[in-house]
Every structure is written in C-alpha cells, then in structure tokens.
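Your task
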Amino acid sequence: MRVAGWLLLMLSLALSLPTGATLRQAPEPELRSLLQQAVSEADSFEDRFDAEVWLLDMSTRLRRYVPDDLERLTLLRLVHREARRAELSPQLVLALIHAESHFDRFAISSVGAQGMMQVMPFWKAELGRPQDNLTDVATNLRYGCTILSYYLKRENGNMTRALARYNGSLGQTGYPAKVIGFWQDHWYVRD
C-alpha cells in the first residue's frame, strides 16, 4: 500500500474514534474515491499529505452544509486555491462563506450581493466583465477572495476593519465578530 494511501486510511480510522460526545465515521468508499481524486487535482497544497489531511478534515466539517460529496470536495479545492492565490487562510474564507451565505451558491442578499461570498454585482461593471456569473462558485470565490485580500492589506492586517469593509459596515463590529466566531468555533486549524 502506498504511504499516502496508508496515511489516509490511518487518518480515516482516527477520525472514526469517539471524540467528545460525537462519533465520527470513516469515509464511505465512494467518498474515499472522490477524496483521492480531489487530492490528485489539488494544486494549491504544498504536498499530497497536506491536501489529504486538509480536505478530509474540512470535508467532515462541511458535510452538514454541503451534503453531496463531489460538490463539497470541489468547493473545498476551489476555496483552498483561491484563498492561497489571494494570500488568505482558506479557513477564514470558509468562515466568511458560513456567515455570508451558509454555503448557498445562489444566495442573494437584500441589497443584491450574490453567491457564496456575497459579492456585489457592481464589481462586474467596474471590471468591464458584465458576462461574469457571480453564482458560479469559482467566479464568486475569485472576486470575494481578491476583495477581502485587498481590504486586509489596506487595513494593515486588521481583521476586524477588513471584514467590516468587506461587509460594508466599517465602524461596526457585529459582522467581523460573527465571521471570526465561525472561524474560531468551526473552521480553525492550527498550522
């Protein structure tokens, strides 16, 4: 058995042991196959082992919001790729999506923001790209991650101010606290 396959099997078994009040189950064979495919297609990780560990961990956490295995793993690969491209933590991006849309790619806010990261449509006109579809996950993540990265740089790394700018609520702390809370409670991973 290859080392990476063995490590994935051991990680799956470890995750199936009781932790606290919950019991995690090892991934089903179909999920394992999809995960192996996702790992082989993941190009934003430093190595294959990092990809396997992160995708399995995040897939387990995300299952309640995105039940379809293929859709979930595809989303996670895209989140990781776009977050890394924009020099963001993929887990922060997952927390922002959790706060903004609860992982609904067709979400539309009361002010017209669209998609998982709730990007305002005026950005398409600003970029001269009216044909872009903000409910397309890859497009939405590219826009959203780029915008958040810009605001983090503009605010010299001040997460609260950057998140407030992203949400259009600069000067208020409710939205940043919500995203940071999701990050710490649901998506945080020690590096």
In short: Confidence is low (pLDDT under 50) at residues 1-25. The chain has nine helices and two strands. Residues 137-154 form the longest helix (18 residues). Residues 1-85 form one domain.
